[in-house]
Amino acid sequence: MISKLKKAKEAETSHKSLKPKMLLKGMTIDELRDYFLRTGQNKFRGDQVFNWMYNDLITDYNEMLNIPKQLRSKLRRETILITLNNSEIKESSKTGTKKFIFETLDKKKIESVIIPEEKRTTLCISTQVGCPLDCQFCATGLMGYKKNLGPGEIFDQYLLSARDYGKDNITNIVYMGMGEPLLNFNSTIMTLKIFSEELTKGISLKKITVSTAGIVPKIIELADTGLKVKLAFSLHSCFDEIRNKIMPINIKYPLRQNIESLKYFSKKTDSRITFEYVMLNGINDRDEDIAALSKLCSQMPSKINIIPFNSLQHINPKGYAAELRPTPKHRIDEFSQKLRGKNISVFIRNTQGDDIAAACGQLAYKGLSIQ
To answer: Rounded to two decimals, what is the model's pTM?
Structure first.
């Protein structure tokens, strides 16, 4: 008995003495160079590992052929190279839209979606598990907030999707999946810096769009980073009283403040703002909404993405969210034509992936509770 207790105690002491593994995935090139210098290596090893991780999308140190075998063994013992596991893949029989359900190392589930279109294929990635914003038309917002994703977990959605779908087949990335990217600002910025590096040849920043529901100080901060990404603003109404009801974040950051920050972003980055607009029957599809949109678009270079409201029945919504209904197609067409008649660029986004709960606003892993 004494021998068994001694062995158990030794095992416990040994376990406690183990150093936690360093997470390399998510480090920028400067951070990797610094890491290798601190561990007694040449800093060019950082460039080599950066290239293997972010350009070649390698998930096994054995494949890093220009890294010495002894160093590869050390890295395998002391660091983490991949942050997500493939959990489930669903593919739409109607459109070819593909939904990936990934599991984090701490057993949380997130979703990413590949959307194939005629001239491009877009990967929609998540930045949080759940979302704290409680937007009434969005399944992710209704499931509540679980945690921020680290930069490695954000990037590995691209890595694992690209390894499955083909890196060359993904042309665009949108930070429009689960969560509010600007409430996970540091991780979002770190991944954008990784994509901005010359060594990361898969996707350039000009093909990346960050979506926000309107976090005013972070919109300004994003503009000041110098990262030339596109910005999509979840508008959905030009009237504060409506936005307050369907998007509670508008109470903290009202539309007037957001408009000023969007003007700043557009001027600072010399870019056009995309206004995302989910069509809700009787709520934001009136003629006065057309007039308000026209006035807003005259204030900055912009375009409008019209998005049909996608059903939330797969999460059994309660309260006001359960009352929302989609604007009929004929009214969406009429609404769009009237805006175009005012010289506004308008695009109607066709619903894709609703048969696998992968369409815009539908991401909410079924294993997570809905508030």
So the answer is: 0.89
